[in-house]
Design brief:
The structure is a single chain. The longest helix is centred in the first third of the chain and has 25 residues. The protein is an alpha+beta fold and 819 residues long. It folds into 5 domains: 203 residues, Sandwich (Immunoglobulin-like), CATH 2.60.40; 135 residues, Neutral Protease, domain 2; 102 residues, no CATH class; 76 residues, no CATH class; 77 residues, no CATH class. It contains 26 helices and 28 strands. The chain starts with 13 loop residues before the first helix and ends with a helix. A hairpin with a 2-residue loop joins strand 22 and strand 23. Helix 12 packs antiparallel against helix 13, helix 16 runs parallel beside helix 18 and helix 20 runs parallel beside helix 22. The chain has an 8-stranded mixed beta sheet with strand order 5-4-7-2-1-10-13-12. A 5-stranded mixed beta sheet has the order 15-16-17-19-18, with helices on one face. A 4-stranded mixed beta sheet has the order 26-23-22-28.
């Protein structure tokens, strides 16, 4: 017997999964879950009945169960619980047809390791959610926790009387129990992997509407219902549009009527459970959301929805093809945003807000191929990163440009048709797309999916010079060169050159004279681009005059890449971005450009130059705030950069009815050394947000004071009272203040003290979210040296290693830029 909630669970290896996958075929899961112990306590109980077949009778294997095993029988005989170890129950002497029955209990329901029980601080109501990717279903009940052993799941859930339970479909029945509470019985799911089933419960506020042939449900905790009701129309509209768009374009409508989305506390992101997506409820913004926030929510909604096809309907065989899920869902989300919603500048937003993170990881020591080597599930957890998501999406956009959208969609339809409810590898998808396009994609696939690093494309005269990372041969690139001529104060497009690069030098024939050749216009390629000398000068001086938001994003991102690689000063980059913002009117790029400018001014500038850089940004933000469409993001940027009494007067007036802005202003004042405890208490009383105390902690964290830093540190790392996700990111941004200099350095070492002990094996979102959010944005050589040593120590957790390698590479570049 193992102790509840204290299981040292072993990470499943690829070889073990292959052996078990060849040996077993799972017929079904019948899982009884008792949540009543979570109403006032910490224990979730489960009884898992697994019917499965064995291809080699007499063989042995194991079932995963990282919880307290109270009893286990195989084909009616009791199993020896003394053999249970490392989250595994040995299964000896299998028959051809088998029935396994395991009664388990899990008391670790407060850490976010597969299950999280939370108590709303405002009304003390209890909520429970599950999230099992990549292998946390084993923490709730016994299962064969690997993606290729798919089976129908039937859940029977006992819960307190006041709770609503959601799972992968609509319940068949809800009945009272003789010993208290109610039992919810759910029908069989389709054949699903263990990581995309779900049970959520609590006294949820529910909104349900019939839209486009589907019953669409939205759920949240009671204390946030006003925000869900505010956003419901947008959420339901995007959901209806997305289901219709994907159903038509993929050639397969979503096959069940019910589609639910549950917004839960304490979650770091969102999870694509079949028919019942769980979200962090921090996206129910406590102030009126900006265009950028609405676009982000639409993108996440469509990403998780796309997983119903990419990942749930058709699932990767093993985690080395994780990108088959994540990159495709990300690409499909932007594709759908542009074609089926109001967010038609989605590709420009993707470049300005997200794609640069892909370049950031790919240029550093934690880079890996999109299809990486994943010897065990622990390594899979490390690959939930910007290579898998962002570079993967970018390469798929390049593939669509390479074969044509019509052929690509035809290939997707064949892929879903031929592999529905099964498992696939990269070859299955690429062969479907290649057949549809009439092209052999084998060499293209190897070069793009099996090689790490970013190519560089440089314009020299009428040629494109292409070099691969480390001097290797470059991959083939399909891209555009925008030809722009000056006309007064404007840059007008005079034409487009379409190029497919081959080898190290590619001639561009027929290119007319121009003031600016914008390399990678339309952002089809994933590559670092360098314009010719004349074009670079025009780009830096006049990017804001380009006629299209995507072209402006290409120009600005080119300048940013040059800053990161030491080819441009922070001042030059900031001048370029601020020039664009002075005239930018596309809501899709205003917010990411503001965020980039703030990052450059606050983090990439030398400490002595930060006040001046922030003052320049504040002036542009104050001007932009005069435009009603951009007022909210401009004011939030101003709150982070305010340097004068005029700035604060403008902010104070705007913050009287905007609690979110009021918290930002208090944090800025605190960072500058002005902390008013009475104002913080007054805002706490005024703000109905159940997480208002976390916002107050952000104000504390910003103070240039050792005791204040200690209070914030204790809340994050010891009390664990700061939810992962946007809430923790906000506190981290307040905490790490590069201009606070020497005060920060001991805390960078404390971060490494914590990292040295952390393992991400349980609770990917919780532990991984804290690891990444709290990575220092300032430091010294001592910090860099120690962090790199930890990253290269034998046996270090793969997620820790990747985070440290990427973080130190970026910080080293920042320190160099600061001089």
């Amino acid at each position: 017997m193992t102790e509840a909630g204290n299981v040292d669970a072993k990470s499943l290896t690829r070889e073990e999964a292959e052996e078990r996958g060849a040996l077993l075929d799972v017929d079904r899961y019948d899982i009884a879950v008792d949540l009543r112990g979570l109403f006032e306590g910490e224990v979730l109980e489960s009884v898992s009945r697994i019917a499965f077949r064995c291809t080699t009778p007499g063989a042995s294997t194991f079932v995963d169960c990282a919880a307290e095993v109270r009893s286990a029988t195989l084909n009616g005989r009791e199993l020896d619980l003394s053999t249970v170890a490392e989250g595994r129950i040995p299964l000896p002497d299998l028959a051809a047809d088998n029935v396994l029955l395991v009664h388990a209990a899990q008391s670790d329901t407060g850490s976010g390791a597969g299950i999280l029980r939370t108590v709303d601080p405002s009304d003390k109501l209890v909520y429970v959610w599950t999230s099992f990717e990549p292998d946390d279903a084993r923490r709730a009940w016994a299962c064969f926790d690997q993606p290729d052993l798919k089976a129908p799941h039937a859940f029977t859930v006992s819960a307190p009387e006041s709770w609503t339970v959601t799972s992968n479909g609509a319940p068949d029945s809800v009945e009272d129990l003789d010993d208290g509470g109610r039992v919810w019985r759910f029908p069989d799911t389709p054949r699903l992997s263990t990581y995309v089933v779900v049970v959520n419960a609590g006294p949820f506020h529910e909104i349900r509407e019939q839209r486009g042939g589907h019953s669409l449900g939205l759920y949240c905790r009671q204390s946030l219902k006003q925000y869900l009701e505010r956003d419901a129309a947008d959420l339901l509209d995007t959901t209806e549009r997305g289901l219709a768009f994907f159903g038509e374009r993929f050639g397969q409508p979503f096959p069940q009527e019910r589609y639910d989305q549950v917004f839960v506390p304490g979650m770091g992101g969102a999870m694509e459970n079949w028919g019942c997506v769980t979200w962090t409820d921090s996206v129910l913004f406590r102030s009126a959301p900006t265009h950028g926030q609405k676009a982000l929510v639409a993108s996440v909604l469509l990403h998780e929805m796309a997983h119903m096809w990419f990942g749930d309907l058709v699932t990767m065989q093993w985690w080395d093809d994780l990108w088959l899920n994540e990159a495709f869902a990300s690409w499909a989300a932007t594709w759908a945003s542009v074609n089926a919603t109001q967010y038609t500048d989605g590709w420009a937003t993707f470049l300005a807000a997200s794609k640069l993170t892909g370049y950031q990881v790919d240029m550093g020591p934690a880079s890996h191929p999109i299809r990486g080597d994943v010897p065990n599930v622990a390594q899979a957890m490390a690959n939930f990163d910007a290579i898998t998501y962002v570079k993967g999406e970018s390469v798929l956009k390049q593939l669509v440009a390479y074969v044509g959208e019509d052929a690509f969609v035809e290939g997707l339809r064949a892929y879903f048709r031929d592999h529905a409810w099964g498992n696939t590898r990269l070859h299955d998808l690429m062969s479907a797309v290649g057949t549809a396009a009439g092209r052999d994609l084998s060499s293209w696939t190897t070069q793009w999916f099996d090689r790490a690093g970013t190519d560089t494309l440089a314009m020299r005269g009428r040629e494109i010079l292409a070099t691969g990372p480390g001097g290797e041969d470059a991959r083939p690139h399909h891209l555009e060169i925008g030809v722009y001529q000056r006309n007064g104060e404007a840059l007008e497009k005079a034409g487009t050159a379409y190029v497919e690069t081959t080898g190290p030098r590619t001639a561009v024939d027929g290119l007319p004279e121009a003031d600016l050749y914008l390399l990678n216009d339309s952002d089809l390629a994933f590559a670092a681009v360098r314009p010719d000398e004349r074009s670079l000068r025009v780009l830096l001086e006049s990017a804001g005059q380009l006629p299209d938001p995507l072209s402006r994003a290409v120009a600005v991102s080119t300048a940013w890449d040059m800053l990161v690689k030491g080819e441009l000063s922070t001042d030059e980059l900031l001048t370029c971005v601020l020039d664009v913002l002075a005239s930018e009117r596309s809501a899709g790029v205003v917010e990411p450009f503001l965020a980039m400018a703030l990052r450059a001014a606050d983090q990439w500038s030398a400490p002595v130059a930060v006040p001046t850089a922030l003052a320049r940004l504040a002036a542009v933000a104050a001007e932009l705030a005069e435009d009603p469409e951009h007022r909210a993001p401009a004011l939030r940027t101003l709150a982070a950069s305010a340097t004068s009494e005029d700035h604060f007067a403008l902010l104070d007036k705007a913050a009287t009815e905007d609690n979110d802005l009021a918290w930002r202003v208090l944090a800025r004042r605190a960072a500058l050394g002005t902390y008013d405890a009475a104002e913080v208490e007054a805002l706490l009383e005024r703000d109905p947000d159940p997480e208002a105390a976390v916002r107050a902690l952000g104000v504390t964290a910003a103070r240039p004071d050792e005791a204040a830093k200690a209070e914030a540190w204790e809340a994050i790392f010891e009390k664990r009272s700061v939810p992962v996700g946007p809430m923790m990111v906000g506190v981290a941004q307040s905490f790490w203040r590069p201009v606070q200099g020497e005060l920060m350095l001991p805390w960078t070492q404390r971060y490494l003290d914590w990292v040295s002990d952390v393992q991400t094996g349980g609770g990917m979102m919780t532990v991984g979210g804290t690891l990444r959010a709290m990575f220092p944005t300032t430091g010294d050589q001592e910090f860099l040296d120690r962090a790199r040593k930890i990253a290269t120590d034998e046996g270090v957790d793969p997620t820790v290693r990747a985070t440290l390698l990427t973080g130190t590479d970026t910080l080293a570049r920042v320190l160099r830029a600061r001089g």
